[in-house]
């Protein structure tokens, strides 16, 4: 689609044609060329998985699972804030690690931990944490029968 769009733009705009320089470029977080252990959840981050592991090595507390049921770690939360523009609790739990859709009840259990990590990373206070958890719990309740 992108190639067709550029080609049309060149045609309509009567622009000069150049060789494609993006055909072999990888995108952020692309899958590495080496085989990754798919038993470890972190593989979904592709080439970024090593950067998340480095965050966890620098702060071992971030390597701890946030849930007894799922493998999500504080490192993934910090990564989402620093590199993926997550600004709200819902951003992380629904759109990054997607635990809201996997298990809404469990997402409510880990919400306070995630909010605390985010608040620390973003420089927010306990009031922000409480507001985020309250708003998130209302949202998550809509996913629970």
In short:
It contains seven helices and no strands. It has helices at 2-13, 49-58, 74-83, 89-96, 99-102, 104-122, 126-141.
Description:
This protein has helices at residues 2-13, 49-58, 74-83, 89-96, 99-102, 104-122, 126-141. The termini are far apart. The chain has 145 residues and is mainly alpha-helical. Helix 2 (49-58) packs across helix 3, helix 3 packs across helix 6 and helix 6 runs antiparallel to helix 7. Helix content is 54%, strand content 0%. The longest helix has 19 residues, at 104-122. The mean pLDDT is 91. It is elongated and about 55 Å long.
Key features of this structure:
single chain, 145 residues, mainly alpha, 7 helices, 54% helix, elongated
Q: Roughly how many Å apart are the termini? A: 40 Å
Q: How many beta-strand segments?
A: 0
Rg calculated over all Cα atoms: 20 Å
Helical proportion, percent range: 40-55%
Overall 3D form: elongated
Sheet/helix structural class = mainly alpha
Strand content: under 5%
Chain-averaged pLDDT = 91
What is the count of DSSP helices, taking H or I runs of 4+ residues? Answer: 7
Order of secondary-structure elements: HHHHHHH
Poorly predicted residue ranges: none
Multimerization status? single chain
Largest sheet: none
